[in-house]
């Protein structure tokens, strides 16, 4: 059995992008810190709190770049993430996926252990189940109600009176009701920044309207939470909002680049690959990094610029003009010049190494156990950081 | 930190599909054994050896269903797989991805440890690097040359004289040359079985022709290896072939169903999900199983029947008519009746559980740490089997 802990500890001084095993997930820490600073500065100007989503990194080490000394606040997408980050000292956590009825007791255990946990619901059934659970007098998480601001997924419409019914059930059951939360998932369909200020305003307006409806019915609404990476960056006014969530901004990716939120140079994660073959008659270079290393995510498939399974860079992270991972099998990547481009395939002999920028950082990172950390332009791996996974 | 080993050991007698945490990967062992028996019987009739690919399961426990007492032969897609399966007693291994030059020493260590390892190459550079490595007189893996039978990926054409150049370099360098290997990757583009007997014959003919060319040049060719799950099942005659490889047949999936290799009822893996919400005005049921649990694989996207992110079944594995995971975010699945279908959305209250058949077993299983094993129609989880990952 492979000892993953031993792998993570094994950072010899000589380890570098030239010598490590490939495929390998590479994290450029300078870019991470720059991306964090950019969004923090923007949100500070808007006067709102920041509750970053850690589902992209799933890493205590990365979360500590967001909160060098602190305990959050953070957002998570699974209870396993909540438990992992709590074990590392993060005690202010919002679990921003609709709460399964069978997950109530597991959530309560975290509260028992001292975590300030908020959970998300949007149905009467969930409220009743929480009220029933609370009858034993034990610890309960705080509850946020999910608001649908753009028809993307779950949530109640901001004018739906079910909001009040749910808040009433919680109050009668002695379950702490905390506020409302929404996520402008449709903002991922933007291109080149178009429509994003409007999406941010729609997200804000929906959350604030729902909060006002609840307040008018006599419920205190302490938290008005909005966020997605695109809307967080394009919001111009967040009056009435108390906190913003965003996740993929930490690393960015080609989808965010296509949406118009970042430059390719802002993308902090890449997959290091080694050339294992050539098919010059087809215009192909073969690497050892297929979809197992990149993920199956084809998030730019319907963008004006389809990046295939990723944009190919040299070992130092500089993109080749229009060279993409055009196709992938489990452990093979096929590099090719983008269809219609005048670019030429670079000279990459067998054994050469390239770095591939991913479509979707959350999906690509999830294929790996470990971040190989580099600083700026150097090839030295200065640390290897583990990731968590599972539910 | 979550103790994955503890999770795997923790199979209480009461654990069942009704009570375990979701999302969860479920493995129906009766179907696994049936799928194995079917292909074994077919290949026995054709008189060839079987070297199953274990990249789908990445599990010693599953591999032991293929070889209850034995040590292989198996095929792997990474050296980490080779090391993992070797640690579990599998000592006859073919690593069927083009060998990176920097992986030669790692492959030699396995040979040193007693593994009968074959590696795959298709360039003069790889042959020269192996010959150079062999100068120290240490253990060397056997070498197969990759043949391109259908333009799908790497390999040399069967009439390419480079085959002989490579075999000559190996002979002069004292590196054991073993034979040829090909993979009919294009067979995945078949639909409903059409063209598969012909693809199988093309795969056989290419491998045998390459072997004959090498033999005519004075090289012994002990191994003539072919295989993909579609061609393995549709081959009618394998004269000249010594062994067949296939991987996904162990579990099958919706892509194999669409290609025409299996029935939906043969699919042995599914993802157990819990209903967390409803949007009746949109015809949606929301679950806690998004793409992190299903993978981003959309392998049926261009099939006549697009299965979305998976086909929805009840908790016992019986499909609902035309209900699919129509869209997915990281931890949300959206169930919907297939566009154009007259089917109706089943009554699935909050807290209900469903099982989702995946597009691509290799990709979906890779999102999970553990197989939750069930036998036949029962809901009891009889074992939890770990998976390996990484490179």
Task: Describe what you observe in this structure.
The structure is a homodimer of 391-residue chains. The first copy, chain A, is α/β, with parallel strands linked by helices and 391 residues long. Chain A folds into 2 domains: 4-26 and 262-386, D-serine dehydratase-like domain (Lyase, Ornithine Decarboxylase, Chain A, domain 1); 53-246, TIM Barrel. Helices cover 29% and strands 23% of the residues of chain A. Chain A has helices spanning 4-9, 29-46, 60-66, 79-87, 104-112, 124-134, 162-173, 196-216, 229-234, 254-259, 291-294, 361-365; strands spanning 24-28, 49-50, 74-76, 92-98, 116-121, 142-147, 177-182, 223-226, 243-244, 269-279, 284-287, 311-314, 319-328, 333-337, 353-357, 370-374, 383-386. In chain A, helix 6 (124-134) runs parallel beside helix 7 (162-173). In chain A, 56% of the residues are buried. At the A-B interface, helix 4, strand 10 and helix 11 of A face helix 4, strand 10 and helix 11 of B. Chains A, B: Keywords: Lyase. Chains A, B: Residues 268-375 form the D-serine dehydratase-like domain. Chains A, B: GO terms for molecular function: D-serine ammonia-lyase activity. Chains A, B: Belongs to the DSD1 family.
